[in-house]
């Protein structure tokens, strides 16, 4: 059966969706079709009350006592990072005991890359993919500089070709932030292991939207942000996963007191906490972690398989409507997201000579996606599909708006001639 292009058919798909009920777990503003959850997830409804409680009662009334459990069941800030890790673990196919949450993505990448390099002291090369999110390359270059290593760029079409006996670590982003293309995580992990190298995965554009299966793949290290598909809020803390087989030997470089075996012994010398505990550095951000903890409640009762099925159904529909209604009339639209399910994350991107104007004109109509510079023109219009709160009718309506923008040449409005620096 060919897929629907009528709105009523999209409605039917929504009625049958096992995730139809989860949209109510979010505050999506009226009149907005939100296709930017791959940059900043929408606000889960439980977050404002949780933050108010933590600020007013736990911080305001409980004060320092709130680091320990309070009689009313609140507080226990000291265990917050672990509680959040336990919510994230099933979404990335990991054991909660192997996940740390608390630093920014960039800092987490730094810690993981240094630890990986130290695990392979005889190997002097870090391999990074050149189209990865910039911070991944910048941090790897910083580590190479710090440790006197070589940074080697790989071919995105064949990252393993760059991995030889000199390579300590292959650091890849699982789902590409521009195109939405997804690497074969188990296959590449196995290939790198066969060459004696470790692999680190950046899961920023994967966690909460696509199956990751870190333990099953026997990956080495992984880092991901929590403000995209995990909806933790702007700048919410990142997670780090370390394979238990590496934890005893892995040494992360920011040896702060919270990663000490007994922080409150206030000992002079650093003694790493066992297991993933060593990956903590300083005091964790309690307000941000509290928001994230409440946000992750939106995943309760939802399986990774359901998320993936819904995400593919949404991106399939968007691609089909683009093919049916847009590309034949405006052939300058060049879809850059893989059609193959096995190679697609949870976003759809296309190049267009006026991609920036298109995105701005859509935003003016309440359809929020974003623009990404692709290094060379044409730039990329990018649309993320968060399965917990997006419906097929939203996809249908978004394409209606796109057609209207193109027909009315709204994207050529001179107001869009200069770009906003933060997009
Ligand atoms: C793949 C990837 N890595 C890292 C980051 C960001 O790192 P940070 O959270 O430190 O800003 C992003 C997005 O901001 C990203 O898309
Ligand atoms: N982290 C961001 C920020 O502080 C401002 C604006 C955007 C972001 C993003 O997350 C960008 C995002 N990682 C991307 O894929 O482009």
Estimate the mean pLDDT confidence: 97
Low-confidence stretches: none
Q: Helical stretch count?
A: 12
Assign the CATH class of the largest domain: Alpha Beta
Q: What is the spatial order of strands in the main beta sheet? A: 4-10-9-8-7-5-6
Give the fraction of residues assigned to helices: 25-40%
H/E element sequence: HEEEHHEHEHEEHEHEEHHHEEHEEEH
Largest sheet, strands/sense/barrel = 7 strands, mixed
Named CATH topology of the largest domain: Aspartate Aminotransferase, domain 2
Structural class of the helices, strands and pairings? Answer: alpha/beta
**Topology, number of strands:** 15
Shape field: globular
Give me the CATH architecture of the largest domain, please: 3-Layer(aba) Sandwich
Strand content is: 5-15%
Q: Which ligands appear in the coordinates?
A: pyridoxal-5'-phosphate, (2S)-2-amino-4-(2-amino-3-hydroxyphenyl)-4-oxobutanoic acid
Q: CATH superfamily assignment of the largest domain? A: Type I PLP-dependent aspartate aminotransferase-like (Major domain)
Radius of gyration: 22 Å
Please tell me the total number of domains.
2
The end-to-end span amounts to 39 Å
Family: Belongs to the kynureninase family.
Pathway: Amino-acid degradation; L-kynurenine degradation; L-alanine and anthranilate from L-kynurenine: step 1/1; Cofactor biosynthesis; NAD(+) biosynthesis; quinolinate from L-kynurenine: step 2/3
Function: Catalyzes the cleavage of L-kynurenine (L-Kyn) and L-3-hydroxykynurenine (L-3OHKyn) into anthranilic acid (AA) and 3-hydroxyanthranilic acid (3-OHAA), respectively.
Subunit structure: Homodimer.
């Amino acid at each position: 059966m060919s897929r629907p292009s009528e709105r009523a058919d999209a409605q039917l798909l929504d009625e049958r969706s096992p995730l139809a009920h989860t949209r109510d777990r979010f505050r999506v503003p009226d009149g907005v079709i939100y296709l930017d959850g791959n940059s900043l997830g929408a606000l889960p409804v439980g977050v404002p009350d949780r933050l108010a409680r933590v600020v007013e009662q736990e911080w305001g009334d409980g004060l320092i006592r709130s680091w320990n459990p309070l009689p009313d069941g609140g507080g226990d800030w000291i265990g917050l990072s672990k509680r959040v890790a336990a919510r994230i673990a099933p979404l990335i196919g990991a054991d909660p005991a192997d996940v740390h949450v608390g630093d920014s993505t960039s800092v987490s990448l730094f810690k993981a890359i240094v630890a990986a390099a130290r695990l392979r002291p005889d190997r002097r090369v870090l391999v990074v993919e050149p189209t990865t999110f910039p911070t991944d390359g910048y941090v790897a270059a910083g580590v190479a500089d710090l440790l006197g290593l070589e940074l080697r760029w790989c071919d995105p079409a064949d990252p393993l070709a760059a991995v030889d006996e000199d390579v300590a670590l292959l650091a890849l982003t699982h789902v590409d932030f521009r195109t939405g293309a997804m690497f074969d995580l188990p296959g590449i992990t196995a290939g790198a292991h066969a060459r004696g190298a470790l692999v680190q995965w950046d899961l920023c554009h994967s966690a909460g939207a696509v199956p990751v299966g870190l333990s099953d793949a026997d990956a080495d290290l992984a880092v991901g942000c929590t403000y995209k598909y995990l909806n933790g809020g702007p700048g919410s803390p990142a997670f780090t996963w370390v394979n238990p087989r590496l934890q005893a030997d892995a040494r992360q470089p920011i040896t702060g007191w919270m990663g000490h075996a007994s922080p409150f012994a206030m000992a002079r010398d650093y003694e790493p906490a066992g297991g993933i505990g060593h990956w903590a550095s300083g005091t964790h951000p309690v307000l941000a972690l509290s928001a994230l903890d409440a946000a992750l409640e939106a995943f309760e009762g939802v399986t990774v398989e359901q998320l993936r099925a819904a995400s593919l159904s949404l991106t399939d529909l968007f691609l089909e409507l683009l093919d049916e209604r847009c590309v034949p009339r405006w052939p300058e639209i060049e879809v850059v997201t893989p059609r193959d399910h096995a190679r697609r994350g949870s976003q759809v991107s296309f190049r267009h000579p006026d991609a920036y104007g298109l995105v701005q004109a859509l935003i003016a109509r309440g359809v929020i996606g974003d623009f990404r510079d692709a290094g060379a023109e044409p730039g990329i219009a990018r649309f993320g599909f968060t399965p917990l709160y997006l419906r097929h009718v939203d996809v249908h309506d978004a394409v209606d708006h796109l057609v209207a923008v193109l027909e009315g040449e709204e994207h050529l409005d001179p107001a869009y001639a200069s770009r906003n620096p933060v997009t």
